[in-house]
């Protein structure tokens, strides 16, 4: 069974709001073994809506629609569905009673317009909405090319109402339509420290088209994620398919892998520090506090993160961190020598087990042939030494800052992984 998801709303096509409903619904459908072939987004326009619904009903066995079920004049989904099925809209008393009751509970009188929310294409089934005035619509539409029918389900656009309606009512009904559909399960493995193509080189046999389970690779802000997608009759079988692939990936990529699903580098760093009951402090120039901010996002960071200094100005580097003026004159601020001196100074001033430091040129201006925009250094000081890593990022100012914060966090992660506990 292949599905299409349609989001209706001019606020989506204009770019004002992001269509998050489609993303959420695709994930839920995958869990019950229904794969999604199309995402379509359309403005609040009756003719366009009918045309898009018609195309979807011809090519997909299931069409999930969100949005356009409100009481206002731009809410056209129910009219478009009636035109698609070539039927009239009919009044449904129980839905009307529910809408009236919602207003009465809040001691408000019901505007006349809300009456349209109790209208349904003839032959359609209302889906009650416990959390709002817009009931959903469940209907079946003939397919022109095929004698079988297409199931069309319209749900409210408000994400909380859509999610509740799907979880509490639509999901069960879809499961009964697709009994042998099995499940699709996904796992995301996150890596940092090599480029997308370098990582793919190591797992070419797994990412080739047609490999089962499917392995995909995506890069986002210098984090490379591998997504394993397994389809099987049930969850256990899918997990059994996935396990050897995940183990192979972890074996080949080693310490490039830092986490799973939504885990970030800071989660890995805080986790390792917590296990060892050790602390970190930061001295940040180019990242202006981003390393400390990310560490602070992790629950439990207070046990490990002592604090940080945004050392943007040279005077702060020398006076607060004790970087010798002569070192800056000799090497320039953007240098391994200075970033290492910052880390050493930071570690002793904070009394931390580790200190992370950053310098670099985030641009867009100020680059020279010797020190181009994107050249950065990340320093790490520990009880027995200091080291630094350099990288030359391409990207916008924000991207260079973000990736440099990752470079710094990753240097501590790698150091902690090599140290005996
Ligand atoms: P509607 O049911 O079309 O009146 O939508 C109500 C509100 O839900 C809109 O104003 C949006 O803020 C939100 N919404 C509608 N569709 C989506 C969508 N696809 N993704 C995220 N939010 C949405
Ligand atoms: Mg709308």
Topology:
Blueprint: E1 2-8, H1 10-13, H2 21-31, E2 35-42, H3 46-59, E3 62-66, H4 77-85, E4 89-91, H5 93-105, E5 119-121, E6 125-127, E7 136-143, E8 146-155, H6 159-177, E9 183-192, H7 196-202, H8 204-207, E10 214-220, E11 223-232, H9 235-253, E12 257-260, H10 265-276, E13 280-284, H11 290-296, E14 305-310, H12 314-319, H13 325-331, H14 336-350, E15 354-360, E16 375-382, E17 385-392, H15 397-418
Parallel strand pairs: 1-2, 1-3, 3-8, 13-14, 13-15
Antiparallel strand pairs: 4-5, 6-7, 7-8, 9-11, 9-12, 10-11, 15-16, 16-17
Helix pairs in contact: 2-6, 3-4, 10-15
Bound molecules: adenosine monophosphate and magnesium ion.
Shape: elongated
Structural domains: how many: 3
- The tally of helices reads 15
CATH top level assignment of the largest domain: Alpha Beta
Name the helicity range: 40-55%
Radius of gyration: 28 Å
**Biggest sheet statistics:** 6 strands, mixed
Number of strand segments? 17
Distance between the termini: 51 Å
Q: Order of strands side by side in the largest beta sheet?
A: 2-1-3-8-7-6
Q: What fold name stands as the CATH topology of the largest domain?
A: Molybdenum Cofactor Biosythetic Enzyme, Chain A
- Are any ligands bound, and if so which? adenosine monophosphate, magnesium ion
The average pLDDT value, as a whole number, equals: 94
CATH architecture tag of the largest domain: 3-Layer(aba) Sandwich
Which regions are unreliable across 5 or more consecutive residues at pLDDT < 50?
none
Category by helix and strand content: alpha/beta
CATH superfamily of the largest domain: MoaB/Mog-like domain
Oligomeric form of this entry?
single chain
Beta-strand fraction estimate: 25-35%
